[in-house]
Amino acid sequence: MKIGVLVVAYNAEQHLAQTLDRIPTDFIDQITAVHVCDDASQDDTYEVGVTYGDSGSANAATLPLAITRRPVNLGYGGNQKAGYRWAIESGLDIVVMLHGDGQYAPEFLPEIVQPLLRGEADAVFGSRMMEPGQALDGGMPRYKYYGNRILTTYQNALAGTDFTEWHSGYRAYSVAAMANIPFADNSDGFDFDTEIIVQLVESGARIAELPIPTYYGDEICHVNGIKYGWDVTKLVTRYRMHKMGFGSGELTFASQPYEIKASVDSSHGRLLSWMSHRPPSRVLDLGCSDGALGQRLRSLGHYVTGVDVERATGVEDRLDVFVQHDLDTGLPDSIAKQYDVVLCADVIEHVRDPAALLSAARNRIGPDGSLLASVPNFGHWYPRTRVGLGLFDYDRRGILDATHVRFFTRRSFEQLIARSGLTVARRDATGLPLEVADRGSDQPHDCSDGVADQPRVSGKLGVVRAVDRSLVKLRPQLFGYQFLYELVPGAPPSS
Predict the structure, then answer these.
(1) pTM surpassing 0.85?
(2) CB of 486 closer than 8 Å to CB of 423
(3) Burial class (CB in 10 A: 0-12, 13-18, 19+), 218
């Protein structure tokens, strides 16, 4: 495998040559390239790198060394971005980040790449915290040590990880894993390293840790500790909020299947409850996503045909029939003409012409059949407050989901129902999705009833849920998070 060493350097003239000297001589023949990236240093870092080959040291003649001087300072993160692009464009398999000031031990290069070479990990982080007391013995200032521990504990709790350290700059990456994450969108500052962790975790990458020694000498620290702590705290908090559905999710990936919301207080859970009381039926699931909802319907004895614009992995295995089709172009001719139930679970807000979709769906309802629909309520106090404060923006999930192209209140949706030749047979409303507090955690869901996940909200949140339920009943237009409808064909819309 092709191994590259990326040496990030800024004002490192006193330490760069020694750092290169410390690369194990017997490991050099495994290294394809060593790239020193001088980030527009104000000292002679670049000159030290250029003349290193003539220094007469043991590594000088054999190290596959290249030196680059940035014309302007890109920042710690910006320098890494350029370096990882180099690794990708050079066709490397592994890239190790090494600091030019020697704070991270080059002697451990053979060890840090081993999990990657064995195919056991996609990234390896050197940790100064794995061995108790080692960091302090190595000269780490106590305020940095305790700050590191506090931040790491907080970041683990919010990101659902169990790393011993989030703040080490000694890392080895699979180049393929790096190419799979949007690192170019990250900060140019020191919080870049935290963003990388978030992106790797979100992408499902395998991350290993390796204990490394701690060296603190006379190198100059360029990190503003207070600003850094604040930046990474905001970042991981924002990530957890994104996992819960709030915020645009700029550090995450938009291609994931639309998640089933199957708690007993959610839209999918309520629809599953309605369907559990029906005899085995032929169901047309419009906007079926990855088929998770249809799979639960099948477990209730229903025969499910799903339609979606994207073919999610495994969707054919979860449904009886799957048809890939864009609902913005109408319903496909290949599906049956009549169904006992047409299901539009959180899909109507995603199409450009919802009236056309509902009218087409009405024509597929068989005798004594119905259409079940759920839509988010734009009249809920949450989007009202956002708009009122001038903070209207999209979230990753929820009422303000970035993929929604239409918004409805109860009045506007029921007007749409009437125009589509349907009448309301039953309506309901859900409250706040308090189960989002568990998103991003590793706690399993309880679906022991075979229908809907049981809520695990307790304590103070349990009180909030009880109050919210009461408010939904009192005034659903303001406190209903989603509206649910059972619709039956009525008089055709007037021309």
Answers:
(1) no
(2) no
(3) exposed
> CATH number of the domain that 423 lies in?
3.40.50.150
| pLDDT, tens digit, 9 for 90 and up, residues 388-418 | 988 777 877 788 888 899 999 999 999 999 9
The pLDDT value recorded for residue 354 is 96
- Report helix, strand or coil for 360: helix
CA-atom Rg of the chain in angstroms:
28
User: Counting beta carbons within 10 angstroms of the beta carbon of residue 72, is it exposed (0 to 12), middle (13 to 18) or buried (19 or more)?
Assistant: exposed
Collapsed DSSP state (helix, strand, coil) of residue 157: helix
> 151 with 273, same domain?
no
Our CA angle for 182, 187, 189, nearest 5°, is: 140
The pLDDT tens digits of the residues spanning 32-41 come to: 999 999 999 9
219 and 289 share one domain: no
What gap in Å lies between CA 422 and CA 359, rounded to an integer? Answer: 8
Residue 267, Cα to own-chain centre: how many angstroms?
A: 23
Residue-by-residue DSSP string for 429-480:
EE---GGGGGTTS-PPP--TTSSSBPP---HHHHHHHHHHHHHHHH-HHHH-
Amino acid at the residue 191: D
Please tell me the predicted confidence (pLDDT) of residue 151: 94
Does the CA dihedral 345-347-349-355 come out positive or negative?
Answer: negative
Under DSSP, is residue 178 helix (H, G, I), strand (E, B) or coil? helix
**Pairing of β 123-127 and β 207-211:** parallel
